[in-house]
Fold:
Amino acid sequence: MKIRTVVLIILAIIIADQALKIWVKTNLHYHEQIFLLGTWFRLYFIENEGMAWGWKFGGEWGKIALTLFRLVAVIFGVFYIRSIVGKNYHPGFIVCVCLIFAGALGNLIDSMFYGLIFTASDEGLGLSNLFPPGGGYAGFLHGKVVDMLYAPIIENKTLPQWLPFWGGERFTFFSPIFNIADASISTGVIVILLFQRRFFRKHPHEEPHPTVETNTPVNDTMQVL
Structure:
């Protein structure tokens, strides 16, 4: 696979991810929903300060540590992708690594810059503004990650009363709200796990036939074993 193809894959994911995030920030109110496929798939605007899929990590210092970790991982990823392309790894594996890299970079952009270039999106504050005259809602490395993709398979159902511990409680199956970057990372990881044998298959080489040196004269009537 050529490095140009790798760059195009990464750019396509980052552009799609950032374009949707910017559109959501500037066109939807916080917690506003737009239904796309009935009630199953929708845009649902939220933000989170932590990891992918809305997970959190250790408060303010944890957020800074996570952002710096993402930055180091992205820098390492540049050299790793160059290495696997140069060594002609399986194209499928290279694409998966590109998906993971692009997803990490997409969320890193949010954490590093969104606090500087947007106004806050908290409920009741209206739409966010891009490049506000008075500055953004937070400093460098303190931006929130924008999530908007929500696809609950079973939503807000009541569990049977006979079920131990959770009987009678409301239940939603697959409740995470995520973004294109999260989906890119998850897709890359899952495909690598499913197809790792194919990606890392070793091609058998023919064993060279051993050569035996001898000073014994050989004639046509002698059988050499």
In short: The radius of gyration is 27 Å. The chain has one domain: 3-199. The chain has a mean pLDDT of 85. Residues 3-199 form one domain.
